[in-house]
Write a structure and sequence with these properties.
The chain is an alpha+beta fold and 168 residues long. The chain has four helices and six strands, in the order H-E-H-E-E-E-H-E-E-H. A hairpin with a 6-residue loop joins strand 2 and strand 3. It is globular, with a radius of gyration of 16 Å.
């Protein structure tokens, strides 16, 4: 892993996750294009729709931070940790769906480039072990739904490692 990127990521996660919430961990949910860019300069139509969605969000069931990057937007959020894995709040699933739909609609309206987007969840478990899971890859013409993203997250989402024998 790129050391400079890893240091930057640790800093970003540390700043966001400075306040510890019992039973929750801070994570990064990255919507990354496979190649090229997915930022305001090359995807103005998508970001117009994303901005509208963010502005219109009502009361949320989760605290999050939206960040723009050249490779795609990133959502920093706290997710509940269960024995089955991380639990994605309803408002986050809806936000992810809105972003994927905005990208698809932006491409229809002329945004470029138009590579598929991947949803990736990454962070550090409470034992400081790094994790990164690719949840789903969506072609630009894909009609993303909250159900599709929820199911992908349940199926592919990060799962806490079971304690090794003798360390329980």
């Amino acid at each position: 892993m790129n050391t400079a990127w890893q240091n930057e990521f640790q800093t970003r996660m540390g700043q966001f996750g400075a306040s510890k919430l019992k039973g929750f961990i801070p994570v990064s949910i990255k919507l990354r294009v496979e190649s090229g860019c997915f930022h305001r300069e090359h995807s103005p139509e998508a970001y117009r729709l994303i901005d509208q969605y963010l502005t219109g969000m009502g009361k949320l069931d989760v605290s999050f931070k939206f960040e723009e990057h050249e490779s795609g937007p990133e959502i920093l959020a706290y997710l509940a940790v269960t024995t089955a894995g991380l639990v994605l709040a309803k408002s986050l699933v809806e936000l992810l769906t809105a972003i994927v739909k905005a990208r698809s609609e932006g491409i229809k309206r002329g945004d470029r480039p138009s590579q598929p987007v991947e949803v990736i969840v990454r962070g550090y478990w409470e034992d400081s072990n790094y994790f990164e899971e690719r949840i789903i890859r969506l072609p630009p013409e894909n009609a993303a739904t909250t159900k599709l993203l929820e199911d992908a997250f349940i199926r592919q989402g990060p799962k806490p490692e079971k304690p090794k024998r003798g360390s329980e």
